[in-house]
Amino acid sequence: MSKQQPKIAILIFANSSKREAEHKFLGKGQELFDYLNKKIVFEASKTNAQICICNETHQIGATFGQRFTNALEHTFAKGFHNIIVVGNDSPNLNASHLQKAIDHLQNDLPVLGPSIDGGIYLLAINRKHFNKRSFATLPWKTPELFGALKKTLEKNEHSVLQLAYLKDIDSENDLTYFLNRYSTNNFLKYLINKILLVLRKSFYNTSYRYKYQYTSVLYNKGSPKTSRRTPIFS
Questions:
Q1: Among 3, 28, 39, 119, who pairs with 198 as Cys (CB 3.0-4.6 Å)?
Q2: Does residue 192 surpass a pLDDT of 90?
Q3: CA gap 67, 57 in Å, rounded
Q4: Which letter does DSSP use for residue 129 in this model?
Q5: Model confidence, pTM
């Protein structure tokens, strides 16, 4: 009889598409993140791991670190020995990254997928790699996260496998990056173009209103009936 492999979960820790678009101030971005949420589920379904989804309605805690570590603790409590955590904002994340993390976890090695901005797009750990107190105090949502998390895992004498760097979507500049480079997916380009069109139209309208208001103030010479000036300071 073959040895039974420990239970593995792919934990998709991500906001709903509506909340993600609002959080990142990307107008009309809900359709994009709806697509990315479905895409990461599709990629995860290509593995033999069980998929667990944790959006804002399931997350518990006042800070991101608390919500993240609580989600890990809750998933371990369900009986999983290994957990791979991913988000929904890395379009290039695919099943091959997930399978590589699964393979190394089964050899008792933690895995990190670093983002270009200093964060992470993937964390793969087992029960003994997880220290709730240490994880909760990490510099989440900062460019220092990857380095700090790697150091935390190595401190416990674990050799950390590092995957390739990937870029995620946090801003308009990131959308432009993927529009120019993610040539294999025309539908993603279409969604990005829709958002950029809305953002640029909004910027143009705001700039026009500001220019009009500035011009109106510039040419307002005040009442011709009096030359008395109101003092700036009284």
A1: 28
A2: yes
A3: 11
A4: G
A5: 0.83
Contact of 163 with 100, CB cutoff 8 Å: yes
Which candidate, 33, 65, 225, places its Cα nearest to that of 138? 65
DSSP 22-66: HHTT-TT-HHHHHHHHHHHHHHHTTSSSEEEEE-TTT--SSSHHH
b/e per residue, 176-198, with b = 16+ CB within 10 A? eebbeeeeeeeebeebbeebbee
- Do 162 and 114 form a contact (C-beta atoms < 8 A)? yes
DSSP 3-state of 233 = coil
**Angle made by CA atoms 68, 71, 72, in degrees to the nearest 5:** 90
- Token digits of residue 63: 């800070």
Per the CB < 8 A criterion, the answer to whether 102 and 174 are in contact is no
Identify the band that residue 220 occupies on the pLDDT scale cut at 50, 70 and 90. low
3-class secondary structure, 199? helix
Q: Which of 102, 57, 55 is nearest to 80 (CA)?
A: 102
Residues facing 186 on adjacent strands: none
Q: What are phi and psi of 18, to 5 degrees?
A: -65, -50
For residue 27 the two structure tokens come to: 């107008």
- Helices 30-44/95-105 angle, 10° precision: 50
CB 92 within 8 A of CB 116: no
Which stretch of 73-82, 97-106, 147-156, 200-209 has the lowest confidence by average pLDDT? 200-209
Number of neighbouring beta carbons within 10 Å of residue 104: 18
Q: Is the pLDDT at 121 greater than 90, yes or no? A: yes
Give the tokens for residue 189: 């380009």
**Mean pLDDT within 134-138:** 94
